[in-house]
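Protein Record: Sequence and Backbone Structure Tokens
======================================================
Tokens: labelled as protein backbone structure tokens, with as many entries as the chain has residues.
Task: work out the structure tokens from the sequence, keeping to the layout shown below.
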Amino acid sequence: MGKTKVIAFANNKGGSGKSTTCSNVGYGMAMEGKRVLLVDGDMQMNLTLSFFPEDRALEIAKGKKNLYEALRAEADLTDYVMPTSYTGLDIVPSSTLMSSIEYELFSKWEREQILSRCLEGLVTSEKYDYILIDSPPTLGGWVMNIMCASDFLLIPLEASPWGLFGLANMFNFYGQAKRIAKDIDLLGVVITKADERKNYFKETSKTLSELENVYVFRNYIRVDSAVEWAQDNSMPVLAYKKNSRSAKEYYALAKEIIENADRKKQH
């Protein structure tokens, strides 16, 4: 198995489809035979809720086997990994207590590197081909931690009138992270919640295509009610309704991400 690749899914704007993209890309990678670990870094726990029903997710959040407890103890994340129902796909679940993580990190030594240290054992063991980290919709010390622990940044971006709002801030923040973690690369931007009938989808695509040195994924994700039904059932849409349009789009995106990450790491 090659070196583990760590990808941060981040956007400071809420509603961009980060958790849904992270869960379905992870599932799609597992379908391709990859060993994948998902890390839920958001207090909203949407990634955790993509794999566990609400009562189980809340039970995990109150217990000792979640990301918040690992970070507080600065512990090896190996001991916090939980299997999902799907082959090749594990998760480090989140907790609602992650809402206070900025405060918890503030007084710690080399605080930007805490997640890196917690992940070190899993990365060096090369047990996983990919570790995908879901971030909260903020820009602060915790998201800086996530970026500093990652090889790549992937930005899901909603095709809506407000989707591009704050993208410049996101790029600036990425630049700050790169000063600390020099090896992080921008993997690209993926358009989500696209409606091809509406002008702002075309406007979003046009604006992104004009950005220099920013890869825009060929595969984008269109609006599809199957995604919401899957979320209602605590499942990735690829598992819930594999023949749906969005399932096919996420699977194609997962393959494109694998291809791009492999190519970038070879250079």
